[in-house]
Design brief:
Blueprint (H helix, E strand, L loop, with lengths): L2 E6 L4 H12 L6 H15 L4 E8 L2 E13 L4 E11 L8 H15 L4 E4 L6 H9 L19
Parallel strand pairs: 4-5
Antiparallel strand pairs: 1-2, 2-3, 3-4
Length: 152
């Protein structure tokens, strides 16, 4: 069984929209879906903001990863945030997520990124263990956010 990642553009908008809805547990008629779809479409139209990867396993769509780009003095240059990482339930615990993360780390290194960041909810212990096995670690600082728009 083969796992592969494809960096996708706007031509995969429909597939990505469906996966995002599944990740958020919403249907296409949910008002949040419209807002998220707008964000995804903007990201797909402007690759300078980030990259979207479709994950396939044995030819079937298994999930997606979204990287968003930034710049950091602390790490010495361009960095990326793994903004979303979703593996469909049927593909979990089969090495798909591990393969996808290895791919993204290699992609980040070959494109000159200096650091990768991600956020994991406290309740997602399995995901946190995977990230730690791949070299991610917690820092002695807090990740804080300020919402500047009520769009989502």
């Amino acid at each position: 069984m083969k796992t592969e990642l494809m960096k996708v553009g706007i031509e995969y908008k429909s597939e990505i929209h469906k996966l995002v809805a599944e990740f958020y547990g919403i249907n296409s008629k949910d008002p949040l879906a419209k807002k998220l779809n707008g964000c995804i479409t903007e990201l797909l139209n402007y690759p300078k903001f980030g990259s979207v990867f479709l994950i396939k396993h044995s030819g079937a769509i298994a999930g997606y990863i979204i990287l968003t780009f930034g710049y950091t003095l602390e790490y010495g240059g361009r960095d990326a945030f793994i903004d979303e990482f979703f593996i469909k339930e049927d593909f979990r615990n089969k090495g798909v997520g591990s393969f996808a993360l290895d791919y993204i780390i290699k992609y980040a290194k070959t494109t000159g990124l200096k650091a990768l960041h991600l956020e994991v909810k406290e309740k997602h212990n399995e995901a946190a263990r995977l990230y730690e096995r791949k070299g991610f670690g917690t820092r002695k600082s807090r990740f804080m956010s300020l919402r500047l728009s009520e769009d989502l």
